[in-house]
């Protein structure tokens, strides 16, 4: 179902001769009293219409995100993996973010993908769906029980056992053992305190033209928030700055899920 069309904010017929539509910068327009009279009444009306426009914009935005999440349907195996993630207190990528991962994997013809943070397999399934049929996902997590759930999810999604290599252990212990320039895409969704180290390892692992993707970089809006922030948010800000200023990366920050930071290695 498509989201509703934006409301037409037109003047009341009885006032049409004395009012005109002027842009307000929000993508809509509002009425302006051409006679200049009745300022108090006009102010009250403007306040009410302003609240109405904000509510309409919010409603349209919510409908748009709902459409985006439903646009690429997730099968039963993915939905079960999501349920397991929620039961474990994890926050997997949203359906929209997952579809972007699938698209990115397909766009680079990914045969070798490294994933930092297996979780219960939600992001892994999306990546595998976008990879070449002979591609292998190497995924790292500190929690063996999560990887066991992911292994079951991959099997339920119809992927052969040899399509995924699950390695337990801290990422910064495992990644140095992976081959230089041996990967088409590296996806990072793990300890935010280590994102700068993940970036350094990703640059080593990626071939020229490969992609690095970080999930959750907006941190529920805290990355752009004011006032004191926890160390993990400060690290995310450093990550955003470093990727933006890098001479070897072509970056883009996508406002899907809790933010996807994507960059191609030159």
* CATH architecture label name of the largest domain: 3-Layer(aba) Sandwich
Kindly name the structural category. alpha/beta
Give a short account of the largest sheet: 7 strands, mixed
The tally of domains stands at 2
- Integer-rounded radius of gyration: 23 Å
Distance between the termini: 40 Å
Query: Uncertain runs with pLDDT below 50, 5 residues or more?
Result: 1-42
Number of strands: 9
Strand content: 15-25%
The CATH superfamily of the largest domain is identified as Vaccinia Virus protein VP39
CATH level-3 fold name of the largest domain: Rossmann fold
**What's the overall geometry?**
globular
Query: Could you estimate the helical fraction of the residues in percent?
Result: 40-55%
Mean pLDDT comes to 85
The main sheet orders its strands as: 5-4-3-6-7-9-8
Name the helix and strand elements from N-terminus to C-terminus, one letter apiece. Answer: EEHHHEHEHEHEHEHEE
CATH class of the largest domain: Alpha Beta
Describe this structure in words.
This protein is α/β, with parallel strands linked by helices. The protein has 2 domains: 7-71, no CATH class; 76-265, Rossmann fold (3-Layer(aba) Sandwich). The chain has 8 helices and 9 strands. It has helices at residues 39-71, 76-87, 95-107, 122-130, 144-156, 171-174, 195-205, 231-245, and strands at residues 19-23, 29-33, 112-116, 136-141, 164-168, 183-188, 206-215, 249-254, 260-265. The chain has a 7-stranded mixed β-sheet with strand order 5-4-3-6-7-9-8, sandwiched between helices. A two-stranded antiparallel ribbon has the order 1-2. It is globular, with a radius of gyration of 23 Å. Mean pLDDT is 85; it is low at 1-42. Keywords: Methyltransferase, S-adenosyl-L-methionine, Transferase. Residues 1-52 are annotated as: Disordered. GO terms for molecular function: methyltransferase activity. It is an enzyme of class 2 (transferase).
């Amino acid at each position: 179902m498509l989201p509703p069309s934006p409301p037409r904010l037109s003047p009341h017929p009885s006032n049409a001769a004395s009012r005109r539509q002027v842009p307000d910068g929000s993508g809509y327009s509002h009425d302006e009293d051409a006679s200049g009279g009745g300022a108090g009444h006009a102010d009250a009306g403007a306040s009410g219409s302003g609240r109405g426009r904000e509510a309409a914009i919010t409603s349209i935005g919510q409908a748009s995100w709902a459409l985006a999440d439903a646009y690429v349907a997730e099968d039963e195996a993915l939905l079960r993996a999501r349920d397991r993630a929620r039961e474990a207190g994890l926050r997997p990528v949203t359906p929209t973010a997952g579809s972007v991962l699938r698209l990115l994997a397909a766009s680079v013809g990914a045969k070798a993908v490294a994933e930092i943070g297996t979780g219960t397999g939600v992001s892994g399934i999306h990546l595998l769906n976008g990879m070449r049929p002979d591609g292998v996902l190497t995924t790292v997590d500190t929690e063996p029980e999560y990887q066991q759930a992911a292994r079951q999810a991959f099997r339920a999604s119809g992927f052969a056992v040899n399509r995924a290599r699950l390695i337990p252990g801290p990422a910064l212990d495992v990644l140095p053992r992976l081959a230089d320039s041996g990967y088409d895409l590296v996806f990072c969704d793990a300890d935010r305190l280590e994102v700068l180290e993940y970036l350094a390892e990703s640059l080593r692992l990626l071939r020229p033209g490969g992609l690095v993707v970080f999930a959750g970089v907006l941190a529920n809006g805290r990355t752009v928030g004011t006032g004191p922030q926890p160390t993990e948010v400060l690290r995310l800000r450093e990550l955003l700055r470093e990727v933006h200023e890098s001479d070897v990366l072509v970056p883009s920050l996508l406002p899907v899920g809790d933010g996807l930071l994507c960059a191609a290695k030159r």
